[in-house]
Amino acid sequence: MVTANIWFTASMVVSAAVFIYLFIRVHDAVHHPGLSWLERFNWFWFLDHHHYIHHIDNDANTNFLLPLGDLLMGTLRVELTVEEQEKWPHYTEARRLSD
Q1: How far from 79 is each of 38, 50, 63, CA to CA, in Å?
Q2: What is the pLDDT of residues 14-36, one digit of tens each?
Q3: What sign for the dihedral angle of Cα 92, 72, 80, 39?
């Protein structure tokens, strides 16, 4: 996208940089628990569970930082089935599916 508006361009670059930074930090914190200050926040635990479900069902919860995107695209799952919970009771087992 080319524009002469320097403020628009700058805001898009900053927004993209912040999104990428957050994605990397949150994703690392999810995959390496106990090491990040992000774990103090309630929203982190929601995203952690959201990502846990994604590792069990790779077609679900594909929009990691913005679950609203999953809602809009029809890929949002908020719960596991009983069978899935029994098969993968912890995140470490589920993570092995896609690592």
Answers
A1: 23, 9, 16
A2: 999 999 999 999 999 988 888 99
A3: positive
What are the distances in angstroms from CA 20 to CA 25, 27, 67, 89? 9, 10, 16, 30
In the chain, the number of structural domains is 1
**Mean pLDDT, residues 57-78 taken together:** 93
Token pair listed for 81: 């089935």
Q: What is the mean pLDDT of the chain?
A: 88
d(CA 70, CA 90): 23
Q: Distance between CA atoms of 94 and 57, rounded to whole angstroms?
A: 9
Q: Is 1 part of any domain?
A: no
If we measure between CA atoms, which residue out of 40, 42, 48 comes closest to residue 78?
48
Which residues constitute the domain of residue 59? 6-95
